Amino acid sequence: MAIETFFVLKTxxxxxDKIIKNxxxxxxxxxxxxxxxxxxxxxKIFTNKLQLLCSSEDSPRACIIANKKLKCFLLxxxxxxxxxxxxxxxxxxxxxxxxxxxxxxxxxxxxxxLLINLVKYARDNxxxxxxxxxxxxxxxxxxxxxxxxxxxxxxxxFLNENLxxxxxxxxxxxxxxxxxxxxxxxxxxxxxxDSIHNWKVSxxxxxxxxxxxxxxxxxxxxxxxxxxxxxxxxxxxxxxxxLFYLRENTGTIIDLDHGAQKLQDDILKAFxxxxxxxxxxxxxKPPWWSKExxxxxxxxxxxxxxxxxxxxxxxxxxxxxxxxxxxxxxKKEKNKGWMKLCDQMSKLDTxxxxxxxxxxxKRQEIGTxxxxxxxxxxxxxxxxxxxxxxxxxxxxxxxxxxxxxHTGNQNKLDINKVINIEAVRASIRSFKPFKxxxxxxxxxxxxxxxLDIIEQDIMKIYRMCLGEGRSPSVWLDTRVAFIPKPGxxxxxxxxxxxxxxLGSYSAKGLERILSWHINSTLLRDxxxxxxxxxxxxxxxxDAIHNLVYRIEKSQEQYLVCMVxxxxxxxxxxxxxxxxxxxxxxxxxxxxxxxxxxxxxxxxRKVYADIDGEVVWKLIKRGIPQGGILSVILWNLIMLNLKGxxxxxxxTFINIYGDDKHSIATGIDEYYCVxxxxxDITIFEAWATExxxxxxxxxxxxxxxxxxxxxxxxxxxxRGQKIQYVxxxxxxxxxxxxxxxxxxxxxxxxxxxxxxxWNCRTMMNRTWGLNPKISKWLYTSxxxxxxxxxxxxWIKSTDIDSHMSILERIQRRGCLSVLNAMHSTPTAGMEVxxxxxxxxxxxxxxxxxxxxxxxxxxxxxxQQGEVLDDKCHMNIIKRLTxxxxxxxxxxxxxxxxxYITTLFNTTIPTRDSFILKNLKxxxxxxxxxxxxxxGSKDKESSGYGYIINDHEGQVKMHGYFNTGKLAxxxxxxLLAIQEAAFRMINSDIRNKSITFFIDNQSSIxxxxxxxxxxxxxxxxxxxxxxxxxxxxxxxxxxxxxxxQPGNEVxxxxxxxxxxxxxRAPGHSIPLAEAVINDEIKQLGRSIHQNYWDRHPKCRxxxxxxxxxxxxxxxxxxxxxxxxxxxxxxxxxxxxxLKRHLHVMTIEDDNICEKCDVGExxxxxxxxxxxxxxxxxxxxxLGQISLTKNELPNLSLNNVLxxxxxxKRFEMD
Length: 1211
Description:
Layout: E1 3-9, H1 13-21, E2 29-33, E3 50-53, E4 62-67, E5 72-74, E6 83-90, E7 93-101, H2 113-124, E8 128-134, H3 149-160, E9 163-165, E10 174-176, E11 179-181, E12 184-189, E13 196-201, E14 213-217, E15 227-229, H4 236-248, H5 256-274, E16 277-279, H6 291-309, H7 313-344, H8 348-360, H9 380-391, H10 398-401, H11 415-418, H12 421-429, H13 444-449, H14 451-468, E17 477-484, E18 497-502, H15 505-522, H16 540-556, E19 560-567, H17 571-574, H18 577-586, H19 591-602, E20 604-610, E21 613-619, H20 628-642, E22 651-656, E23 659-666, H21 669-689, E24 700-704, E25 716-717, E26 720-721, E27 723-724, E28 727-730, E29 733-736, H22 742-760, H23 771-787, H24 800-818, H25 826-832, H26 838-856, H27 872-879, E30 892-898, E31 904-906, H28 910-915, E32 927-936, E33 941-948, E34 954-961, H29 968-985, E35 992-997, H30 1000-1007, E36 1010-1013, H31 1014-1027, E37 1031-1036, H32 1044-1057, H33 1072-1093, H34 1098-1103, H35 1110-1115, H36 1123-1131, H37 1137-1142, H38 1162-1168, H39 1173-1180, H40 1195-1205
Parallel strand pairs: 1-2, 7-8, 17-20, 24-27, 31-37, 32-35, 35-37
Antiparallel strand pairs: 1-14, 2-4, 3-4, 5-6, 6-7, 8-12, 9-12, 10-11, 13-14, 15-16, 17-18, 19-23, 19-24, 20-21, 22-23, 25-26, 28-29, 30-36, 32-33, 33-34
Helix pairs in contact: 4-5, 5-14, 6-7, 12-14, 12-15, 14-19, 18-19, 18-20, 22-23, 22-24, 23-24, 26-33, 29-31, 30-31, 39-40
């Protein structure tokens, strides 16, 4: 097979996409010049069959599009906006293909220095070179009508470098109405000229003023077979049958390596038998292509052939008209296809996937890289080797290779207790089903779908791993994916990529269980509060809050505050293994755990592959990025660092991942610098001991002071002076030395705007996403960007110049959803959409963060401490001063608990209860039935239970009041807990006890291995205690379906709710839902107050005096084409004469439809206009209305009335 090359020039917007998707002629390569560039200055293709290769610079004028079958990679050192060079693998050789654009400016004649360097590189390394260029030069040697200096100089260069121009004939490559010329050439190395066949200026219509050039390179390229299995289309019933058959014939696992390998082979074999291989289709027409396009395309080809035979002005005009007609039709059909896709999109997950693709843009391709000696890689294998050597350096410390002595460790791990069947199930089910597999090729869903078949074997292997202190060899192979970091300028630097380790999910399951064990037993209450990373209930905002709090506190005391921001170089991949093991031993880790971790970290083998080229390396240092235990081991290293800081240390050190900052406060700068330099000494000593280095270039220092003049004394790290900065981006927040937050808001707005405009491409005035999805896109993708870490910059909500920046983005979002006139007021649209103004939303988001910080202990305010009124902590306190629930005990646990289940749970189908009525009397002598239920009304809540024996007698019953703040879910759990407690106290043993519960969530939460609720924790322990002496089952029963036992329990629960003696409101720990409801209620109250005091929006206030979701619920059911009309009616910004007169479009505002002489307002139109009295009676029920009746009208009736009047129909 030959490399068919198609070479296109100056493509307009639609045609590049059409050439690729529809008429690619099966070509493997397209060399493109002057491609269409989107508004974000990037070239994009929307197909997964091809790969786009070009420079990362903005507005590239040269690119290459290659079929993904072809093994090629980008030569970064020879690519810029005007040139793209790639290396293509051809058996044991390489060919360089290059697309070149030579600008026509006299100041920059060809060849460019980059092209000269490429030619020299190809000659020195004996690599064949093929270039397609828009040279904008004339020379008769390649068929031009004349010679110019650019063409002569370029031809002289070709002759000197033994480059051959393979253009044939004089057929023009550039054609406009009054001019034809050959401007586009193909030149190759002398040794490859004989391998080029069928070079011609193609008859294919490129829809450009340049014509396409077509030729074949007669070499056998290495092709990636586009064959794969789609795991989502697996026949799961067959998969389970095949897996069951394969495992049924497997004996007891004796050898660890053999057992793990056999399990892996069986899973993959069952998968391969139940999921067919498929081959990716190529040359498929896009879904928007139509028969009419086929016809117009044939017309273009017809007239072009006539023009080629004999050129006249008339024939050229025929051709031009046909070409323009086809081009316009392509645009029209593409737009129709996109409109149809957006109109039919009704599911949020579909919208999220499309938005994710649109937001991601072009992914930078892995290409050539700069080696440590300054030269560049020449092959894929060499590039992979450079990447692996950069991110996984060879161990240089011989002490790290020495096995750690575990003989002195007397701590013994209860392997059977830690590795139990429930832990195995919970760990395997914790993974997202379709995450990318590791080296073994096993997706998590393959383990999950067959878990009941293989769970005992997995548990056996896990226990053997800890018993032998090692992992199976098949688990130690890790696939590494190198992801280019976004926004970097030089992608030839291997440091601009991030390695992500994709390990076996079987191994990750064991890691997950051990992480639970370490967190719940070894590390509980031992991790320093100033370590914020990778901890449950703790996040980035905790670290940012603590930093800003320290700065604000120092300013309140008129002290100088200096913050040293430190960053580590490749920390995860360089950290000493023995250092982590020692830190693990310091917290009391058991010997079995220590040996397994050591074996896993010191025997890892990573591999990276591109296009079938594979590079392996044995790793003896660092921890895998993406590993479950990695984050815990890293935190242990950070704990070791914090342990070196004395209790009375003058600075505050906070840590998040590999980002650290040290805060020094004092009366002057010299005192702060002296303390920070001491910290640097401690950091450097610690880093050296653990094989790490701080990046001197990324380390910065900031001064916060109310003094006008500050002295910047020198600070040094690794012998280099540290730079002082006035602003710094810390964990996604821009912090300036005056804490003004203007820079952060501006940067945030830019990011939100980018996402917003991407969303706008799916919405238009007459077509697009429905209102529900449109609003979701804004509230889920755009608004969270603006509200991130709003807790620390909450004072900006009172600064109009700051809020106006964000309000503009929210306004665009409202206009997009409602398709409203641009004059429509923002406040009115927000009420229609039930959307809080952005400053109120920021406050509510800040309160939500404050709620979490209160519970996890990171809201640290000393007793009697007084801070400035503008301090973010005081602002939050003022906002929450009337909230009563924030400081009450919470039901949600800070740390998860892991509890085995000694009882059974079952959720039968509803039909099984309908077909056979359940009697409250147990059928057996040793059986007991317990019916429980919970109840809640506006004033209180309660629960009840009844326990029956086999004789049908009531052994026990009870009911209790649980106060106003308990949820129904909590009352259900408390009923189960109380009933179990009564039976335990009655010493009921050796019975078969069945709880019948009409709340499925309660049953599921009690059956979970992971517990995150205090009430669930206490209830599960109580039921487990009962189950230790009895056989206990929790079974679901349909509520309010006439089942006698359930009806009695429901009656008792209502009686508990009505009890006069009520439990104190705080006796039941508060559910998160109760606090969230109070926060929402506070937001609604503030919004209503804001709406009542708003000086404008008279029409919207008349229609919607209350800020609630009633109207939005009705709007969300309407099609997009109705949004503009609805907005006109509810805001008054309409085509009625009153508004048009205000806009100076009409001379007067008097209604022309009636003789009343009133201004034609929405109120007049809906309520009083006599011309529409009959329509009003038919659809609104009355001949006339008052304005006080307008809020009670349903949207559907209003729309029926409006449509019947035909007043809003445009002529």
